[in-house]
User: What shape does this take?
Amino acid sequence: MLVRPKVSGPIVVVLAAMAASAVLAGVVGVTGVTTTPHLLETTAMIRALAAPAFVVAGVLRLARWRITGESHCGLRGLAMLLMGGISMPSATLVRTLSEPSNALATVTCVRALTVGTILYVMAVALSDDAPDRAHLERKIGWLAGTTAAVLVLLALTQHRRLPPEPTLQLGLARGVVLALALGWFTVAIGAVVKGRRDDWAKPLAPLLATMGIAELFRLPARPETALVAVTLTVTVAFLAATAAVVDLVRAAQEENDATQYLSRELADVRGEVVSRDARRDELTHDARSTLAGIRAAMYTLDRHADELDPTTSDRLRIATLAELTHLEHMLVGSSLDGDIFDVTEVVRTVTDVRRAAGLRIDVALRPGLARGVPGDVATALQNLLVNAHEHAPGARVSVEVRTAGGLVQVTVSDDGPGMPSPSAGSPFDRGVRGPESHGSGIGLSIARELMRRQGGELELCGTATGTTFVMSLPSAASFDGAASAPLGVAS
Amino acid sequence: MLIVDDQRLMADSLCVALRLEGFDPVVAAVTDRHDLVARIVADPPALVLLDLDLGGALGDGADLVAPCVAAGARVLVLTGTKDQLWIASALEQGACAAIDKAIPFEELLPVVMSAARGEQVLAPRARERLLDQLRVHRASRRRDLAPFESLTPREQQVLRALSIGLTVPRIAELWVVSEATVRSQVHAVLSKLSVRSQLEAVAAATRVGWL
Assistant: This one.
């Protein structure tokens, strides 16, 4: 409870042994085994041990406060420094220096003043989560006022040498001791309450309560009980010092961990920035190159329109189109998933344009929502229509959109001569073209690649009567299921 | 004349345009670095139009400059990059000039043609300026990296380990050495880099790109 066992196993053992021996010493004192002067000597000796222990604990608490900035740490450090550095030494000093006749009253006054201050500081530490400055200043003002009042009281007692009667002195001493004990218990209860919300306050309660018990042992004003009181106090001092060591070590460790964590984060963030910069540079560079290529092709096509043979100009034109699509991809950053869009819209736009260019096209459109890249579908369809126009001039082309088996299909068929079996390979291979074709053969391969890139397909179906191409895309509905069936299998 | 550009449209357009202007350019296949160099060595063209960013198969075009020049070809760098240091390093390897692809094609074409005719297309002063930039950059980079070069291999390892968030005890455990050893190495790193904390050391290393 006092110190967490994972860090402090051996320390707890040592402490337990120490506390046991201290209590034993106290018991020995009470049972009167030794004589009174001897007892007083022992008491003084043990008391001399407590002060440095409190000072050490206070300094360590303050050190932790410097690392973590927790205000309660600073206040506890302050309280323990007051205890070890001011309260106990001044009480001892006054006890030695005062005339024996009113020593008890003087010591009582000093203790009332200093221990009262300590209790007050502890109360502040326990009462505030994060005391704001003005609030704290007001409290410290009150503290200063009370202290001044007690000092005046002390001065008066010293001056008038009051109360000279031993019974009156004893009465005063008992009153103060009771008040202080009450103070300790109150603060201990405060620690219990606070401990419900904040872990740091939990170990404080038993220590504070022990201080209260020690105070009560001063009540009889006998050497034996005084020894017990001092023993208890010194035990608390050592426990506080140990807890402060453990906490400080833990704070340093956490600080170290935080540093390591920050180092790693720093490296990660830096890496992320570098790779993002690299991606951006690459994109910029790619876009510039693509634009340069398009510019070069347009210039060449425009400048040398008359001198170019149809194959070459066709090739440049189709390649330009492909580069434009590529550029769009780069800028939009379209993923392979694509967007959900209405295929019929795209088909309508493209067929309208081709119709205006003189192609005879019939369309049969049924709404078909698909997932893909509209621009790519448009380019692919355009390539198919250009292809139809080239290999079957004047033929009637029909375009149909339908949804079947999780696929949206666009069928492009013409009533032309059909696609004669090419000299070698598939009509989708680059450079393969029909014997009559003026095209470069790139259009179909680009169209297929565009479709495949967005998870679709382009197939040539049946060459008996005319040519039929089927473009297919996964339908939007097919993505609603947990997993979309692979293309081709679903249909 | 050989055109080495992974951007096919650019290469094709240049090829077509130059052919119409009366040159006889060939577009090189940019699939294999070794084949390309072998081809250039076997039959050195008068001029190589070289792109710097050649993509996956060929990588850095600047590295191709030296073999081309050694084979006796002049190299004209034709690039979309804005990276002046990259261009400068190509010039340093012996490229005769560099042109930005992004300029209008009607301006680009005459430069390529005059280079093909063996004329000088880059003023010596401009060339010197670019090379100076490269030298200045290299010097400053050397200066930045000097403290890191002075680290012993073990200290470099320590710094790398710190940068991935390992603690001193953990490093000691991993390397089976004592914590004190690692701590003294960390101190050596800090003093050589003139920094006060581990975090600062890692920050310095990432800043100059040493990591």
Summary: Residues 223-303 of chain A form the longest helix (81 residues). DSSP finds twelve helices and seven strands in chain A.
